[in-house]
Each structure stands twice: as C-alpha cells, then as structure tokens.
Amino acid sequence: MPELHVNTLVALLAFAAGIVFGATAQRTNFCTMGAISDMVNLQDYRRFRSWLLAIAVAIAGSQALHLAGLVDLGRSIYLAPNLGWLGAIVGGLMFGFGMTLAGGCGNKTLVRIGTGNLKSLVVAIVLGLFAYMTLRGIIGLARVAWIEPTGLALQAIGGQGLPDLLARATGLAPAPARGALAALAAGVLAWICFRDRDFRASPRDIAGGAIIGLLIPAGWMITGIAGADDFDPTPLASFTFVAPIGEGLVYLMTFSGATINFGIAAVGGVISGSFVAAIAARRFRVESFTNAPDMLRHLAGGALMGTGGVLALGCTVGQGITGLSTLAAGSLIAFAAIVAGGIAGMKYLEEGSLAGAARAMLARG
After folding, report:
1. What's the pTM value of the predicted model, to 2 decimals?
2. 58: Cβ–Cβ under 8 A, 6 or more apart, which residues?
3. Which of 352, 251, 242, 342 is nearest to 293 (CA)?
4. Please, which residues have CB within 8 angstroms of residue 187's CB and are 6 or more apart in sequence?
5. Is the Cβ–Cβ distance between 91 and 312 less than 8 Å?
6. Burial category of 86 from C-beta neighbours within 10 Å (exposed 0-12, middle 13-18, buried 19 and up)
C-alpha cells in the first residue's frame, strides 16, 4: 500500500477534525456572535463564557505543545514580527459588525450551511469572494497601500508574542515566562467561567467550549507534527475560516490536481459534521430569505466579514481563539475589536441607524 503524501495526510486529518468541530458547534449551539447577542440583549453570559473557556483550553494546550518542543508557534502568522495594529482594529470592527448583519460569524455560517440554511450559503459565497479580493484581488491593493505600511516592526524587542515581551521586561528566561503567562491567562479565564453558577449548571456550554478549545492544539499538531516534512513542510496553522472559505471557492472553481490545504479541508469538515449532527438530531431544515431587505443585510454582512477577516488576520475563531492561543498581542487587539464591532452591530439592528447605535453604545458605556 503506497504511503500517503504529507499534504494528503494533513487534509484528511483536518477534514476529520473539522467534522468534530462542526458537529460540536451544531449540537452545543457554540456561536461567538450569539454569545455577544446573549450578553448584550439578554444579559446571559453563558455562551460568552463558553467562548472564554475555549480560549483558556486552547491557550493551555497550544502553549504546552510549544514548551514541549512539539510545535513552534513562532511559525504561525499570528506571531509575525510586524504588529498589524490598524488591520486588527479596522478589520476586527468590520468583521464584528458584519457578523451581526449576516446572523453569524464564519464558523456559524458553515454550521448553518450544514443544517440547510440557504441564507448562510449565500453569505459564505460572498464572504469568500470578498476575502479572496482582499487577499489577492482589487481590495488587496488598498490593503497593501494603506494597512500594511502601518505595521509596527517589533523585532528589536522580541516580536509581538506576549511571553517574549514579558521575558524581556522581567529578565526571566523565555520558557518560565511563557509557562507563567500561559498558566495565568488560562487560569484566570477558567476562573471567570466557572465562578458563574449558571455556567456551571450548563453542561452543553461547558462541553462546547472545552471541545472547541481542544481542537485548536489538535490543529497545530496536524500541521506541525503530521505535516512536518524535511523538504516541503506544511505551513503551521489551526482553525480559522475567512481566508479558507475564499481559498475553498477558488479550489472548487479551478481544481486541476492542486493541493488541498488544512483550511480548505477543515471548512469541508465543519459543513459535513454539522450536516451529520443535524440529520441525526432531525434538525435539518431548508431556510431561505424572508424578503429583499433580509437578503441585502446578509450580503452586506458577508462582504464586511470577508474583508474585515482578512485585514484582521482572522475571525472570532481564527483570531478570537486560535490567535489568542499563541498569546500574540495582535490577536488580543483583534479580539477586542471584533467584540466591539459585534456590540455596535447589535445596537445598529436595534436602533436602525449608525447614529442611533453610537448613542446607545455611549449611553451603555
């Protein structure tokens, strides 16, 4: 029996991990946009704490892999020496606002496709088109001209990794500084989650956060260990959905023996896992737009998510969990911007105008 090529092995493992991701998100209703909505509109923090738990588990697992020498997180895009602060802020705000218009983030869009939601299928297509235009198309010209030049070169102070900055500031050795910061971050987040009685009484939210969180280091292992090759190593990556949706569309349209990567395979796995879970639970139901304004709102949301997700280097999962698992400063900025954009989007839908949303946010703040 011929040995699997490393790229094929990575794709198969990514697809399997994506199935687990999609099935988990579908059955536990893990949704970062829904978490912000519950928090803003219902003062219900359970799903937001599920997101925080996923971050805590992802940090603990990912940093353990790095400290054990199994994976070098410094190879990830999140720890690039240049801190793209403007892209993180502008892109994060765009993505957060867009996901409220589209009714879900990139992850939720894929999960809903698996459950028969035609609105999410349209959103995914628009998101993918705008993501690819921002990566390599006409919007990319503006990104290169206006966003990338603002990046802060941090090589002189050890890069944008928070453990490296801590080691430099305190004089600690890199490994102890990393271990201490990872333990502190994961511990504080877990404490925030489990100190809440309602969250402790919600096994669904606990399971969703824990499983999604574990899948992030699993992604690092797939690309960093299974994808290791002396001549053609797989780029280090884990779960993120904006750029892979765009790349997936191009792959479907231009396939001619091209290599499928981790992100594309994971996207397919998430849709498949959600579909299987929905069928098993008898929750598969075809749903479409109710009217023209509904469609226009979803189209706008997809466009904002596609563009913003590329500018910010990720989505609520890509930056909000995977990026944070690397303890990158840029990921922390993007996470805050995405949450702020999501809150602004909720207020916009509630007030009906940007001015009304701004007044509502100022009153709340």
Report:
1. 0.96
2. 213, 214, 216, 217, 321, 322, 324, 325
3. 352
4. 56
5. yes
6. middle
pLDDT tens, position by position, 179-228: 999 999 999 999 999 999 999 999 999 999 999 999 999 999 999 999 99
Of 162, 173, 134, give the one whose Cα is nearest residue 303. Answer: 134
DSSP 178: H
Neighbours of 318 (CB within 10 A): 29
Q: Which residues contact 176 (CB under 8 A, 6 or more apart)?
A: none
Express each pLDDT in 136-168 by its tens digit: 999 999 999 999 999 999 988 888 999 999 999
Tokens of 241: 């959905």
59 contacts 130 by C-beta, under 8 angstroms = no
CA of residue 94 relative to chain centroid, distance: 14
* Residue 228 tokens, joined: 């290791």
Nearest to 221 by CA among 349, 65, 7, 44: 65
**Residue 170: what residue type?**
T
CB 167, CB 177: distance < 8 Å: yes
Q: Are 236 and 322 in contact (CB under 8 A)?
A: no
